Amino acid sequence: MEGKPPELGGVWKRLVVVGGGIAGSLIAKSLQFHADVTLIDPKEYFEIPWASLRSMVEPSFAERSVIYHKDYLTNGRLVVSKAIDISNSEVLTAEGRLITYDYLVIATGHNDSAPKTRPERLKEYDAEHERIKSANSVLIVGGGPTGVELAAEIAVDFPGKNVILVHEGSRLIEFIGPKAADKTLEWLRSKKVEVKLQQSVDLNNCSEESHTYVTSSGEIIKADCLFVCTGKPPGSAWLRETLLKNSIDSFGRLKVDENMRVKGYKNIFAIGDITDVKEIKQGYLAQKHALIAAKNLKLLMSGGKENKMASYKPHSIKVIVSLGRHDAVAQFPLTTLIGLVPGLIKSRDLYVGKTRKQLGLDPRLVDY
Ligand SMILES: Cc1cc2nc3c(=O)[nH]c(=O)nc-3n(C[C@H](O)[C@H](O)[C@H](O)COP(=O)(O)OP(=O)(O)OC[C@H]3O[C@@H](n4cnc5c(N)ncnc54)[C@H](O)[C@@H]3O)c2cc1C
Q: How many whole angstroms from 107 Cα to the centroid of ligand 1?
């Protein structure tokens, strides 16, 4: 009886997914006709994270990349809240609601703060666009993928602005190889972005009103607007006092087995950036985790044997960092590329149409 849809006399298992990002949205969508799905996310929408830098220079881009959860979760329940605690059968939300589960998926990625509603998020992009448009000089702190992609978007769309990128490390985007980092630096400099490596800005001791910033080597930078693009911590702080407190490694990641279950638990899965899978943290890999976990959950929920579960194999490095609307830098296992060829893969649409399609949505703009 169990595992069959209710209309055929079966009883669906209760599946709770915590976190509606890249991984959580896909698994919730994939299992909504196989389980009684509840998605818990602090926002009423899902957002494609890597499209956010384009939305800052072109706010209408966010119309397709900020998507109501209800648009793809047509047969599941949405709880707009933060999860703050879990037991072996329930999740507690910040509003004090207890949600019972048979199976749980943790997909809380990285810590971020974003407004609750989609209109508020779109307004934020309008405001950021205005800030950039009205500034003569822009200071970006942090030369990881976010800082680099933002610097490139501004340099390409607003070539007259003075863009300064300050990065603590000895090279940009440290998780990719030195060759790709050098090519990125060369590209940014060719677009007149001032890149300052091995320097930091003390953000606690500066005032945005005076538009003056001091770097660790004592250099004074004048900039009309500031964007802080330093890394975000893993979204596991809320788990530190819970049932899973001993399942978190020293980097704040959940320890998982090859079936994407939290080690030592039979009914708790973790997917995406929150996991300790030994590979670079990327959205397309978070989606692969989601699909493996969905397959295993379907098997378990229909009474299948544990030894038939699918295993996840970590992937080798494959990263594309966009550089404005046409170019990109790519690091593949055997080669590094920069320019229009990798740009053709990512930079025009930033996989927005593709991601929408994966969620069963029209890849083009939809009217609200
Ligand atoms: C600039 C940039 C460019 C990138 N480019 C690419 C790229 O080209 N290709 C690629 O594959 N990847 C790319 N990535 C990486 C990709 O964005 C991440 O790997 C991906 O977002 C991870 O997905 P996730 O679902 O694990 O986490 P996230 O997408 O971070 O989602 C986590 C979700 O959990 C929610 N959440 C957090 N805490 C709680 C809580 N307590 N209760 C309930 N919900 C909670 C959050 O609100 C969020 O919705 C890029 C990242 C950046 C920053």
A: 9
pTM of the predicted protein model: 0.94
Closest CA to 49 of 318, 287, 298, 332: 287
Query: What is the residue whose two structure tokens read 């009217």?
Result: 367
Is the beta carbon of 107 within 6 A of some atom in ligand 1?
Answer: yes
C-alpha closest to that of 260 among 272, 249, 252: 272
Report whether pLDDT(174) > 60: yes
Among the atoms of ligand 1, which is closest to the Cα of residue 274?
26
Compute, in angstroms, the gap from residue 216 CA to the centroid of ligand 1. 30
CA distance 154 to 134: 12
Instruction: Kindly calculate the radius of gyration of the chain based on its CA atoms and give it in whole angstroms.
Output: 22
Distance (angstroms) between ligand 1 centre and the Cα of 109 equals: 5
Q: Which residue has the tokens 């397309």?
A: 284
Determine the topology of domain 6-42+81-112+232-314 in CATH. Answer: FAD/NAD(P)-binding domain (3.50.50)
Cβ atoms of 176 and 320 closer than 8 Å: no
Give CA–CA dist 322/311, Å, rounded: 31
- Span 46-102, pLDDT tens digits: 999 999 999 999 999 999 999 999 999 999 999 999 999 999 999 999 999 999 999
- 167 pLDDT exceeds 80? yes
Query: Atom 15 of ligand 1 has which residue's CA nearest to it?
Result: 282
